[in-house]
Specification:
- The protein has 338 residues and is mainly alpha-helical.
- The protein has one domain: Orthogonal Bundle (ABC transporter involved in vitamin B12 uptake, BtuC).
- The protein contains 14 helices and two strands; from the N terminus they run H-H-H-H-H-E-E-H-H-H-H-H-H-H-H-H.
- The chain has helices at 2-17, 25-36, 48-83, 95-108, 116-138, 146-169, 176-185, 197-212, 214-221, 224-229, 234-256, 262-274, 278-302, 311-333, and strands spanning 139-140, 143-144.
- It has a two-stranded antiparallel ribbon with strand order 1-2.
- Helix 2 (25-36) crosses helix 3, helix 3 runs parallel beside helix 8 (197-212) and helix 3 crosses helix 9.
- It is globular.
């Protein structure tokens, strides 16, 4: 845990340093200390432009990237626990696509009476609806098999992508396609202080609830029969966790677009490092997920600077091969691949 916290701090510092204007590490750290202390702990010896860049642009961007990564990481870990499927995640199960479609519907028909709050509601409803349909499709005879769940999620994602494309193609607004590109590939270029309160509050509240329910999540990992025998109302608990993960994912998509594979690969890495006990794994996956998205954002805005790649491309290039490796590993464990 100490190592992961150190990694997060290093990623955050590098995120403050790198950009169209490079700022030395010492200067960036001094500006942050000066800003946090209200000017009490350091004396300005830097250019005013550097302070404006750090405080008004890069700190909000780093915070947003960290919050998005942490939210997707904990959502993925909870989803994998409640369905007992290591291949599940917000992007694989169609939650992210549903949230993106909900946001695009709002933009397509001009339903932005409440501003960004409308996008949050639409993304939440879209993500929850997509997740509900996926579980309804995958559930047969009261049971849910991992294969059916993944296939249902892939099919739902394809359908939602088609609906999103149809909304864009039939829109009278010629600029909608450019705006939708942000929702389908994700990024943190629009980060502002005014966008942070809702996702930060959602992460704090959601993670707190998950930590309170950590023992129940551990029970689910042992199987439904064992959980019921120990007094857990499995169906009610699952529904509650579904709503919570859909809310976190929906708010994440509303502020950053669809950033895939974070909720899939981070839980696996964390279980290798700290084990499967959710009392330890949930804080760890939040920290590691935050570090990963900050690092992905750094790569996205540095690899072909000054042009920024969508962050979703970077996470997909990392997460896609990892997902393939998981499938191959599971096949070997069943004796399918030789």
């Amino acid at each position: 845990m100490a190592g992961m916290v150190t990694l997060l701090l290093i990623c955050a510092l590098v995120g403050l340093m790198i950009g169209s204007v490079s700022i030395p590490a010492g200067t960036a750290a001094s500006i942050v200390v000066h800003w946090l202390s209200g000017g009490l702990l350091s004396t300005p010896d830097w250019r005013e432009a550097h302070e404006i860049i750090i405080v008004e642009t890069r700190i909000p961007r780093v915070i947003l990237a960290a919050v998005v990564g942490a939210s997707l990481g904990v959502s993925g870990m909870v989803i994998q626990a409640i369905v007992r499927n290591p291949l599940a995640g917000p992007s694989i199960l169609g939650v992210s696509s549903g949230a993106a479609t909900g946001a695009v519907v709002v933009m397509r028909f001009g339903l932005v009476a409440l501003g960004a709050f409308t996008l949050h509601i639409a993304a939440f409803v879209g993500g929850l609806a997509a997740l509900s349909i996926v579980f309804w499709i995958a559930r047969t005879g009261g049971q849910m098999t991992p294969t059916r769940l993944v296939l249902a999620g892939v099919a739902m994602s394809a359908v939602l992508s088609a609906i999103t494309s149809l909304l864009v193609l039939t829109s009278p607004d010629p600029q909608l396609a450019a705006r939708v590109l942000f929702w389908t590939l994700g990024g943190f270029g629009s980060a502002q202080w005014k966008l942070l309160p809702i996702p930060v509050a959602a992460l704090i509240l959601g993670l707190a609830i998950m930590l309170v329910q950590a023992r129940r999540l551990n029970l689910l990992m042992a199987g439904d029969e064992s959980a019921v025998a120990l007094g857990l109302d499995v169906e009610r608990f699952r529904r509650t966790m579904f709503v919570l993960t859909a809310a976190l994912t929906g708010i994440t998509v509303a502020v950053s677009g669809v950033i895939g594979f974070v909720g899939l690969i981070m839980p696996h890495i964390v279980r290798l490092l700290v084990g499967s006990d959710h009392r330890h794994a949930l804080p760890a996956v939040a920290i590691l997920g935050a570090s990963f998205t900050i690092a992905a954002d750094l790569v996205a805005r540095s690899i072909i600077a000054p042009i920024e790649l969508p962050v979703g491309i970077v996470t997909a290039l990392v997460g896609g091969p990892f997902f393939i490796w998981l499938l191959r590993r599971d096949a070997r464990s069943l004796g399918v691949v030789r």
